[in-house]
């Protein structure tokens, strides 16, 4: 391949073939493939970190399925990392695959990741970001994760063009020095934005283009808003994305025209850079200097038969003739950090800008469709949409598909577009298949326009030992990570499900949040768990970070649990950690955690802290039955905590304000539930815990210094446990609701007794004496005090179910003189009266006996009964 040969096809003179692309653009990807087929270069150079050269052959493996990403992380600080995502429609991926298929060397030529990560560390000090800083120009810095919003990422998001549509260069950072552009990392769909510097904003005289500083500053501001807007406006478009689709994405590559798109784009970028310069961003100049050095080295080895695939913005700089010494001086003395690199799976959602850390494109699923289909993309897209909607039980026929295609084509013609784009197809789907509703359209956007595709990498890819062990466990448990969020029900009585539960709990201890436990809808038994699962690409970084704790999941989780126990500040944190150790089945970590727990519990005298710690500790006792864990030591510590709470709770409840009283009420509820569980299997040295707890509640219920909300709750708990008769409960309520009690205190007592979701509404429904007391007290509250107690009452009764509130209203409507009247009861809601209705009760007895198996020849008394399953009388 010579410059003359390429010149006949429109290439720009002698030298390497420079293919300026839009990252993650299917049009650019198709054009790159056509240009490489036409030019047949002897080497392919690609914008990316050179450390990944050894990983390029893995792209030819059968198990490698994009989207994938190159992951670089600092060896000594794995959380300091950077991603270079690649999809099947990424020009870089197409170039890599072409080189492997044609046995042509492929190399990355961008600034090495060893400098990129070191620069990102320096940026934390410049921008005020800490160790948890977020993405900086596409780099996921230490511990920041994909979605952190501190440091440079906040400035990046504040910038108008930092994610504009599919074509914004999210990698071009507007912050000082954050030039780690790595467009394949930040995922700019087009690398056409000059990396500007805050120093350029502060110093308008910084003019590298020779123009007056005032004019230059104004022009730079326009480009920073949206670089493609300049070209689109020149072409008469008001939407740069529409312009790009019309001139590139919807344009086929004709025969003999393989190089034309790159010539036009290079000319346009050259004009932009001539007008706007580099924006004073020194680090962008350093990257381009390094790329020029790599291109020269390839030319010495292969001649001019070299193809370079890079962001279009860099093409004029790579074409520029500069001295080798000048380029070397720019890259000399750069900071370094020891780096490892590998392939990791990526997802379409992470390519989408809407998902936080991504590639700056809104519609990766649509782009993948455009790149993959051989012909008739609109018809095939509408067929996909119809299949999705029919799978969701929506009525969509082939006629809908035909009409949607016709409408999309008509809209494109009316809007002056060569082919229907995503906007036209979306409008057609909304009108024809969704009947104008955005609800099913949102499903189409989520499942198809964005997509749930999760890439795969081969087992031969480098990985830390912990990742290897995790992969082995996942294969053994048949537990494959998926990008689509789903719920998984686990039955811990099954070996495979128990293993999956252990793995998820251990990963959570390590900070790898693959799954989140949620409440089980079908069962409340301790043998069942429900998890919400979704695998995110950033979890590969978390696994690398967790590798410092051990080489296997079990060893790492054990070491991490022990370290967390020693470092925990609050007693509740240690008890929660003990519970997590039991769930994760970490027998080696549990003794350390229990020792720390015993030491902290002996020194902590705050009843609130003890009350917070006890429930998690007692819950852990339940797991011994299902998981086979010895919880004897745990029971002793829990019982000791309960004893100390019993002693300290009454004095701790004195002289509390409203907020502290409400918090103490929650502690009383939590301790009551914990004692109920602990009383089923008490420790050998701690007998009759329930009895002593009931004594504490009796003290709380009658002590005047205890806030009303706590006294009311104590009476309610005693009543529910059968330790207090209804007559006594009514007497205590009557005393509290007497005229001598301040209305505010009485309202607080009522809130404690029947408030919240504790079933207090049903108590009032079934005990009309209590309801009468509340009704009489409420009607007697003075007008000047009613406004003060109204918020408490509203909070109390608003928590009831609508049916309970309606029933209480019916009962109150009858009036106090009619509550015991059967006649009055018949005029209101059936079934509510002072006395039992024997007829209604007898009507259900046959069904109850049938369900309990008490009838038949073997039933009580050996008397056969003719069971009538007729329930007609039940509702009478």
TrEMBL record:
Enumerate composition-biased segments (Low complexity): 167-177
Show the segment(s) annotated as Disordered: 127-146, 161-220
Q: Which domain of life is it from?
A: Bacteria
> One Pfam annotation, family name?
DUF5682
Protein name, as recorded = DUF5682 family protein
């Amino acid at each position: 391949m010579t410059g003359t040969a390429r010149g006949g096809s429109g290439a720009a003179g002698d030298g390497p073939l420079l293919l300026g692309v839009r990252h993650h653009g299917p049009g650019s990807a198709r054009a790159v493939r056509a240009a490489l087929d036409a030019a047949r270069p002897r080497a392919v150079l690609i914008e990316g970190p050179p450390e990944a050269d050894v990983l390029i052959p893995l792209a030819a493996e059968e198990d490698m399925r994009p989207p994938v990403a190159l992951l670089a992380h600092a060896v000594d600080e794995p959380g300091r990392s950077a991603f270079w995502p690649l999809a099947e429609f990424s020009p870089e991926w197409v170039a890599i695959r072409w080189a492997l298929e044609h046995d042509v060397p492929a190399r990355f030529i961008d600034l090495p990741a060893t400098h990129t990560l070191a620069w990102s560390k320096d940026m934390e000090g410049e921008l005020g970001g800490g160790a948890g800083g977020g993405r900086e120009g596409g780099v996921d810095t230490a511990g920041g994760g994909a979605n952190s919003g501190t440091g440079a990422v906040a400035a990046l998001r504040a910038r108008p063009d930092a994610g504009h549509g599919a074509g914004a260069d999210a990698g071009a950072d507007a912050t000082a020095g954050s030039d780690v552009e790595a467009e394949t990392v930040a995922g700019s769909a087009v690398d056409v934005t000059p990396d500007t510097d805050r120093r350029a904003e502060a110093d308008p005289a910084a003019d590298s283009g020779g123009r007056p500083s005032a004019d230059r500053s104004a022009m730079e501001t326009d480009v920073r808003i949206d670089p493609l807007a300049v070209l689109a406006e020149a072409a008469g478009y008001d939407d740069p994305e529409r312009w790009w689709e019309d001139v590139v994405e919807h344009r086929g590559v004709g025969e003999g025209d393989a190089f034309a798109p790159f010539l036009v784009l290079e000319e346009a970028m050259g004009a932009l850079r001539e007008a706007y310069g580099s924006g004073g961003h020194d680090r962008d100049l350093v990257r381009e200097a390094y790329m020029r050095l790599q291109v020269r080295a390839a030319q010495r080895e292969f001649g001019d038969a070299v193809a370079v695939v890079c962001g279009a913005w860099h093409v004029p700089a790579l074409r520029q003739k500069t001295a080798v010494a000048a380029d070397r001086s720019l890259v000399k003395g750069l900071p370094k950090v020891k780096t490892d690199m590998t392939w990791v799976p990526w997802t379409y959602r992470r390519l989408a800008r809407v998902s936080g850390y991504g590639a700056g494109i809104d519609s990766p699923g649509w782009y993948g469709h455009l790149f993959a289909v051989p012909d008739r993309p609109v018809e095939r897209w509408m067929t996909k949409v119809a299949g999705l909607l029919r799978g969701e039980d929506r009525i969509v026929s082939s006629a809908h598909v035909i009409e949607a295609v016709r409408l999309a084509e008509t809209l494109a013609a009316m809007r002056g577009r060569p082919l229907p784009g995503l906007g036209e197809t979306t409008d057609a789907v909304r009108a024809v298949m969704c009947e104008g509703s955005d609800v099913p359209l949102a499903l189409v956007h989520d499942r198809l326009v964005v997509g749930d595709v999760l890439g795969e990498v081969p087992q031969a890819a480098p990985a830390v030992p912990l990742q290897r062990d995790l992969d082995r466990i996942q294969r053994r448990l048949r537990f494959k990570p998926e990008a689509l969020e789903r719920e998984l029900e686990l039955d811990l009585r099954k070996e495979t499900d128990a293993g999956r539960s252990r793995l998820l709990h251990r990963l959570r201890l390590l900070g790898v949040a693959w799954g989140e436990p949620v409440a089980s809808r079908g069962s409340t038994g301790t043998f069942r768990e429900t998890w919400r699962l979704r695998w995110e690409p950033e979890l590969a970084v978390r696994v690398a970070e967790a590798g410092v704790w051990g080489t296997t999941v079990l060893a790492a989780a054990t070491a991490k649990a022990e370290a967390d126990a020693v470092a925990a500040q609050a007693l509740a944190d240690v008890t929660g950690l003990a519970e997590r150790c039991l769930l994760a089945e970490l027998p080696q970590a549990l003794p350390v955690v229990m020792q720390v727990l015993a030491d902290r519990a002996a020194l902590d005298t705050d009843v609130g802290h003890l009350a917070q710690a006890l429930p998690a500790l007692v819950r852990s006792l339940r797991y011994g039955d299902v998981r086979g864990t010895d919880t004897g030591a745990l029971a002793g510590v829990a019982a000791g905590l309960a004893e100390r709470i019993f002693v300290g709770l009454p004095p701790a409840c004195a002289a509390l304000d409203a907020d502290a009283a409400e918090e103490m009420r929650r502690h009383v509820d939590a301790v009551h539930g914990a004692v109920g569980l602990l009383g089923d299997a008490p420790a050998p040295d701690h007998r009759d815990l329930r009895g002593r707890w009931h004594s504490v509640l009796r003290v709380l219920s009658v002590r005047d210094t205890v806030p009303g909300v706590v006294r009311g709750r104590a009476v309610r708990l005693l009543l529910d446990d059968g330790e207090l008769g209804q007559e006594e409960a009514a007497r205590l309520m009557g005393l509290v609701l007497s005229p001598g009690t301040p209305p505010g205190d009485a309202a607080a007592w009522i809130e404690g007794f029947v408030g919240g979701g504790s079933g207090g509404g049903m108590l009032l429904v079934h005990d009309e004496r209590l309801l009468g007391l509340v009704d009489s007290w409420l009607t007697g509250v003075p007008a000047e005090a009613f406004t003060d107690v109204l918020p408490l009452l509203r909070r109390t009764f608003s928590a009831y179910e609508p049916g309970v509130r309606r029933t209480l209203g019916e009962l109150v409507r009858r009036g106090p003189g009619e509550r015991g009247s059967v006649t009055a009861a018949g005029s209101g809601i059936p079934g509510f009266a002072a006395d039992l209705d024997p007829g209604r009760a007898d009507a259900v007895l046959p069904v109850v006996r049938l369900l309990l198996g008490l009838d038949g020849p073997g039933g009580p008394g050996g008397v056969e009964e003719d069971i009538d399953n007729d329930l007609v009388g039940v509702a009478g």
